[in-house]
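pasting ABC transporter for the record, 610 residues
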Amino acid sequence: MSDHPAGAFRAGGGLGGMRRFGSGEKAKPASIYGMFARIFTHARLEWPAIITAVVCVIAVSLLEFVVPQLTRYTIDHLIPGKRFDGLVLIGAGVLGAAVMLGVLRYISTSLMASIGQKVLYKLRNDLYRHMQSLDVSFFDRNRTGDLMSRVTHDVSILQQLISSSMMQLFTDFFTFTAIAVYMLWIDWRLTLLLLAIFPVMILTTKLFGKRIRASFRKVQESIADVSDHLQNTLTGIRLIKSFTAENYESERFSHRTRENMDANIQVVRLRAAYEPIIDFLNFTGLAIVLVFGAWLSMKGQMTVGTIVAFTAYLRLLQNPIRHFSRVIHTIQQSAAAYERIMEVMNTKADIWEKEDAIALPPVRGHIVFRNVNFAYSRELEVLSGFNLELEAGKVTALVGSSGSGKTTIAHLIPRFYDPQAGDITIDGYSLKDVTLSSLREQIGIVSQDIVLFNGTIIENIRYSNSHATEEEVRAAAGAASASGFIEAFPQGYDTPIGERGVKLSGGQKQRISIARAILKNPRVIILDEATASLDTESEQHIQEALARLLKGRTCLVIAHRLSTIQQADRIHVLEQGRIVESGTHEELLRLQGRYSRLYALQFPQTKAVR
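structre below
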């Protein structure tokens, strides 16, 4: 038994079990026709290579048709007539056909592999681009590891279908049709007996196909679970080690990999049951040819060479069925992967631009909330009839208990979420009437949860302005009080910081995030607990940097530590999504209300202003 029962709150737990897209409705299964249609849509620009591959396939089918004719001619004509001179030509013909088959198959396989890789390249980029267009609430609902699995593993599964299986299907269809027509011409009675077997094969394939597809879906979902667990535990490795939870997480990982193992075993069992049935039906066809063909030969209605050729054609006729019995697994696996991909591609963003949205011109930063209602879910209303004004060029602070709605207000300004009712304007423009890019380009955010990417210091600072010169980056770092510690590193601005900035201290990471915001040069700044977890010395450096950053800009400051907002032009105290007090620091202390009590708790030795 695990010694960490509260696993739902550990790395990889919590909401990790959710699989939700859009509003959470169950997606309809994607059709195989739709999958092929989308693949051809991506492949349409590769038509010269597709035509070449198709020509090669037709040539392969014709060559395979010729070889049994050479066999029949040898048995029926060369051997009875003792025509030794013809044997060399027959041998050369068979070897020449083998060489041509090898060359043509190489060309068609290479071309289809190239086309497959290009289609995957486009599909993966389309999927990633679509995910980037979705709003923050989508990523709140869905697991990072699961989304990673869809972009990497599920898209890769389609490669085998595109590069080899689709060509195999086309080859088999052409070969089957051509040979069936020829066999009907040679002897329609024997051919019809053989063809009577194929409806049974098709029905068997259909019955097993549904189960195989469902099993592959479980395989891919279990892989997503493994990926999600890895992503959570590897990023939270310090937490795991601090709580000595290594064994607990190993048990959970083992549980997920066991689910993947069981799902794969189920797929193997279905294949193991399906393929012998197809083989039995193939042997039934062989028995028909041998028995009925021999009977016709004994009656003088068919030559021995024709029987041998018929047997060879039977093999060519059955090969497509054998191939399809294998390809069906690839198709069903690809269909399951395609369903998971389309769940994302069919998800519509909750935050979208109007068709007539305008580009927001440079703003002063006057922001107004009017009768705003917002809820993350029906059961969790955060703001109700909320009103707030942020004056242009002034510092407005929000304080209050956790869950009072402070961070929600900060997220509504750049339209990470939209309110269910009411309106938010900036310089008189409704946020819903302007393009998202023009709005967010004028907003800078510095939060307690710092996001830094695995790269160098200069790359992370320049992330807000990719066209900035090195001199501008250095100037931003200097304004953020970061140039001192950066230049102390042996590699300076080219110093790698590790994943999530693991090689930097909390204060250093925060100053880099401020330098990034300064380099963006936004008109509106949002500081969400920007100094909450810093020591006194780091906070002093950052307060100096923030003073430079905020000069002449509209600023919204969210803080629990009241020492950081005493100089704000306006302070609002929030409780349960409503403003209960407003004023300057001194005015709120004189009120002897909620702000005064918060201040007394943080500074018990300081006498309140009366």
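The CA atoms of residues 146 and 224 lie 5 Å apart.
The first helix runs from residue 32 to 43.
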